[in-house]
Amino acid sequence: MCYIMVLTSQLAKYYIAVFISVNPPAMPPQGWIQMLRPFDTREQCLTEMKKNQVIYVVSVAKKFKKILKKVEMMECMTQRDIDEINDDLGHPPSRRKNEGLGI
Questions:
Q1: Would the N or C end of the chain have less CB density within 10 A of its end CB?
Q2: Can you name the residues that pair with 15 across neighbouring β-strands?
Q3: How large is the greatest C-alpha to C-alpha distance in the chain, in angstroms?
Q4: Residue 9, exposed/middle/buried by CB under 10 A (0-12, 13-18, 19+)?
């Protein structure tokens, strides 16, 4: 069983994820959104994130300008990690489908 978990984590793609605070009343006040471009390794993802961090923050600010309170942080995470954290924050699973920014 441990072998399967290690193999799965090695095959997982990483995404640039942005943690934001928002102000609409019908949703949780915070959550992670992800960019659509996957990376094979966390290192590749971190390199891209650091190189173009300002571009990602500006893109998120433009996309969510009507509800955005603050861009809190940015991290490289797997889709599974993003989904699990957003579940814990109270986001319904259907809301996350096709939520990436296409960057």
A1: N
A2: 77
A3: 46
A4: exposed
Q: Specify whether the CB–CB gap between 59 and 101 falls below 8 A.
A: yes
Structural tokens at position 61: 């600010």
For residue 97, CA distances in Å to 77, 80, 92 come to 16, 13, 10
Which phi-psi region, left, alpha or beta, contains residue 22 (left: φ > 0; alpha: ψ -120 to 50)? beta
**pTM given for the model:** 0.78
User: pLDDT by residue (tens digit) across 9-67?
Assistant: 567 999 999 999 999 778 899 999 999 999 999 999 999 999 999 999 999 999 999 99
